[in-house]
Design a protein that fits this description.
Elements (H helix, E strand, L loop, with lengths): L1 H21 L2 H8 L6 H4 L11 E16 L4 E13 L15 E5 L8 E3 L2 E3 L8 E5 L3 E9 L1 E3 L11 E10 L7 E5 L3 H11 L6 E15 L2 E14 L2 H20 L9 H23 L9 H58 L8 H6 L2 H32 L5 H33 L2
Parallel strand pairs: 1-10
Antiparallel strand pairs: 1-2, 2-7, 2-8, 3-6, 4-9, 5-8, 6-7, 9-12, 11-12
Helix pairs in contact: 5-6, 5-7, 6-7, 7-10
């Protein structure tokens, strides 16, 4: 009885000693033979049959939209990328190693899929995660957060009420779909839900949606598996409305208020030119924001051009009014000068008549007395007849000029009517233009 009990205690002690001895990650590494023959685990795909592909599962969540560069057509998202696959050469029984089910190893010890992002234009400057996780069934997981600088085709037609969609396309660099097959872990609704939980800071851009789909591509008979994550973001338009769109409307209000300034002075023209230059400055600011390679003219550019065109017409109308007023003043001055000249002609006519009817000055009186009376009477009769005909001709010309002449202030009245008509046209055109722009911005 005693030897049996002693044998049981000895067996129990040996099992406990064995368990304590195997409770180490080093024992797992030695069992997997990871400390030797590293080429076996780093140089080849981890499959026993080369015809079988490695299935790589991806999971991408969006943490934040750090920046969107419309001019360079780039988006900078902060994403969390989780990727795992199975290594058929690595597995162990947790019961043999104190229930150790996973452990972390340096990434350079094992083979990793060469997954890249097609749209990425700059590599993340932060160092990648130096460790990966290996599980007892051979599944390997690597997790990393990255700040991506990726290309994105910007559609700024409805700026600043635009919604941008940018893609992140994951694929292998050198392996075909016969060697690496990509698959997604979460569907689109689960990705949106997870992203909304992770995303705490949303500044200029609001997260709208994120979808995922898988496809196969063929480039020169080279087939590859690709997973595309499509991120939809919406711009916060409030800042642009306050700082850009409303000031332009205020400039239009100032242009309308300038109709109350007198047209006779040059202050109205200078005021309108100043307001027009202010709108030009706003257009220059807009040119620094929007990309120059847009396929369609953005509505915000049409908005600025339309306002600029109306203000230009207003400026031309002011120039025309000032020209007509100057013409009115010039005609009045010419009329006064004509009256003065006519009055001077009548005085000279009277003096000539007096001269030839015998009312001559004392200096010419001796000469007249020497001529015969008959010759004097004949010449006097001819002169009177000539003067009569000239007088009738002058009356005819004066009457025709009076008939052609416009009443005083004629062009001033035309200018008043022109101002009223153009002001009504300005209001109607501006209202219709703003309604049209509002409709286009809200149209799908």
């Amino acid at each position: 009885m005693i030897p049996a009990g002693f044998f049981f205690l000895l067996l129990l002690t040996d099992v406990q000693t064995s368990d304590e001895h195997n409770c180490s990650y080093l024992d797992v590494l030695q069992y997997l033979n990871l400390t030797k023959n590293k080429e076996k685990f780093t140089m080849i795909r981890p499959v026993r049959n080369y015809k079988e592909p490695v299935t790589v599962t991806l999971d991408v969540l969006l943490y934040a939209i750090l920046d969107v560069r419309e001019k360079d057509q780039q988006v900078i998202p902060y994403v969390w990328i989780d990727m795992w696959w199975k290594n058929e050469f690595l597995s162990w029984d947790p019961n043999d190693f104190c229930n150790i089910t996973n452990m972390s190893l340096p990434t350079e010890l094992l083979w990793k899929p060469d997954i890249t992002i097609e749209e990425m234009t700059e590599k993340d400057r932060a160092p990648p995660n130096p460790f990966l996780i290996i599980r007892n069934d051979g599944e390997i997981e690597i997790t990393d957060d990255q700040v991506l600088v990726s290309a994105c085709r910007m559609h700024v037609y409805k700026f600043p009420f635009d919604i941008q969609t940018c893609n992140l396309s994951f694929k292998s660099v050198v392996h075909s779909d016969r060697e690496i097959v990509l698959t997604e872990h979460l569907n689109s609704s689960e990705i949106v839900e997870g992203t909304l939980e992770l995303m705490h800071n949303q500044y200029e851009w609001l997260f709208v949606n994120m979808t995922v789909h898988r496809k196969n591509i063929n480039v020169f008979d080279f087939h590859q598996s690709v997973i595309i994550y499509t991120i939809s973001i919406k711009r916060r338009a409030g800042l642009y409305i306050i700082n850009f769109m409303l000031p332009i409307l205020f400039f239009v209000g100032l242009d309308l208020a300038s109709f109350m300034i007198s047209d006779s002075s040059g202050e109205k023209l200078g005021f309108k030119v100043t307001v027009l230059l202010a709108v030009t400055v706003m257009q220059l600011i807009l040119n620094d924001i929007l990309p120059s390679s847009s396929n369609r003219i953005p509505l915000i550019a049409s908005y600025c051009i339309g306002i600029f065109g109306l203000m230009m017409l207003s400026l031309l109308e002011t120039v025309l009014v000032m020209f007509l007023l100057h013409k009115d003043t010039k005609e009045e001055a010419e009329k006064e000068q004509s009256m003065i000249e006519d009055f001077g002609y009548k005085e000279s006519n009277v003096s000539i008549k007096k001269y030839y009817t015998g009312q001559t000055p004392s200096e010419v009186l001796p000469v007249v007395k020497e001529e015969s009376s008959s010759q004097l009477m004949e010449e006097s009769h001819d002169v009177e007849k000539l003067l009569y005909e000239l007088r009738e001709l002058v009356k005819m010309l004066l009457n025709s000029r009076m008939e052609e002449a416009r009443p005083a202030g004629y062009w001033k009245g035309v200018c008043n009517k022109l101002n009223k008509g153009f002001f009504i046209f300005y209001i109607i055109a501006l209202a219709l233009f703003l309604v049209y722009m509002f409709y286009r911005w809200n149209a799908e």
